[in-house]
Amino acid sequence: MLKKRFFLVMVLSTAAIASGQTDRLTVNADLLPAPTVEPWSVIRPDTACHGEWLVAGDVNGDGRAEIITARNDRQRVTAFAVRDLDGRELWRWGVPGSGRAQLGYDVPLQIYDLNGDGRGEVFAGIDRFLLVLDGTGGREIKRWPLPEGLNVTDCITFADLRGLGRPSDILIKDRYQNVWAYTPDWVLLWHWAPRNYKTCHHPTPVDIDGDGRDEVLAGYSMLDENGLPLWTLAPEEADLSRGHLDCCEIFSTGPSPAMHRFVISLCAAKTIAMIDGGGRFLWQQSGEHFESIDAGRLIRDTSGKQIAVDLDHRPYGDGLVWILDERGDRQISFRCDYGRHHRLIDWDGDGVDEILIGNARALFRGNGSCLVRLGPRDLFASDAGPQKSGDAGPLAAVGDLDGDHRPEVILHSKTRIAVFKGLTSAPRPGPAGTGINFTLY
Questions:
Q1: Is 9 within 8 Å of 17 (Cβ atoms)?
Q2: What is the predicted pLDDT for the residue at 389?
Q3: pLDDT the model gives residue 380
């Protein structure tokens, strides 16, 4: 253990000196040397139906993913376009040029094969309705009314609440006060509204008791399959009056609730914590606005998994992404212009994940080095920062697009989409695309 710690300190110290940082745990992401990888595909979409929200999935059953990007008006989907991997527009929906391209939240648009026919349907939250479209050509299948008083769903989540063996039920919510669950025929299963605290950005379905039915972490409370709270986080350990739950990452699962591990970020409480499936705090760290969380094996010479989390609400040019161990101890941090959008991918297939930081346009190792830089610097013209340019990009996504079960890196902005292919990236099972219940959090 001492040898491992000594090696890690030496690596960090060397990187910190090279980057001009005085904090031995912080490296300057922009100054780390690395080779450059050229994009496999660059798409310059017609901006009339293009926005920063991006999801990918197989909508026509050919085994390859199509890419959908969308515009919105205060979350209402106003226009989107469906493209193949060559950039050809297959079909579009909505009013071109309506709404805006920028993001400040999840946009309610998902691709999911709810009916199990091998082709993904497109689910879009529009004004007062949830729209379901045939993915092949955009034919309207359903137009379900939202609950009375709800003008737009905050996000769309699929869960297996009835034990059917696959996610077959639909969760929708308003911003922070209500969650509703429906069957695929839009029959209301339950409605939950906490009285004295807020919910979350995106609910997390997970079967914690092994009965084949999902429970739902919907903020500070875990709900059973009937929408009834199993537990609520202890107010003495988490100030429930402050903000909402930003992100929940499933760190590990087990045969009982006590064996599950979740890493959560608590908005205005400025806290990141690990809890078990019974809501018991295992550790917590406070003092920063922790936002999105990834969990994976990030450091080769350690056992188990590590945690990547960005520190938001910082000036542009002073973004941070921290790497924590399973005890919550910081191992290293990457300083970059903007750390908000990050994902994990085993790019070189060695069994250790790299951290993709979208705005830095690079893949980083958990030991403080940079594996590759993605494309030339001028591929995305957003160096003025999101506040001045109105473009938070490039944003980051990871998913198998071409159907070979090896994930690609997707960087995208208001003006273009770039796909990078790792020829040795580790296989991931599942259908092509960016995955079910895609979220920015």
A1: no
A2: 56
A3: 86
The per-residue DSSP string of 108-145 comes to SEEEE-TT-SSS-EEEEEETTEEEEE-TTT--EEEEEE
- DSSP string spanning 148-168? TT-SS-S-EEEE-SS--SS--
- Residue 207 DSSP symbol: -
What DSSP character marks residue 20? T
Total residue count of the chain as it appears in this document: 441
Report pTM: 0.92
> Which residues, 6 or more positions from 193, have their beta carbon under 8 angstroms from its beta carbon?
177, 178, 179
Q: Burial of 240 by CB count in 10 Å (0-12 exposed, 13-18 middle, 19+ buried)?
A: buried
Continuous segment of H or E residues that includes residue 247:
strand 245-252
Residue 157 pLDDT:
98
Structure tokens at 317: 């040019």
pLDDT at residue 175, as a whole number: 93
**Residue-level pLDDT at 385:** 54
pLDDT of residue 267: 84
Give the residue ranges of the chain where pLDDT is below 70.
1-22, 381-392
Sheet holding 330-336, edge to edge: 26-28, 330-336, 319-324, 306-311, 290-296
User: What are the structure tokens assigned to 65, written together?
Assistant: 């993913």
Query: Which are the contacts of 257, defined by CB distance < 8 A and separation ≥ 6?
Result: 208, 209, 276, 277, 278
| Distance from C-alpha of 316 to C-alpha of 338, rounded to nearest angstrom | 6
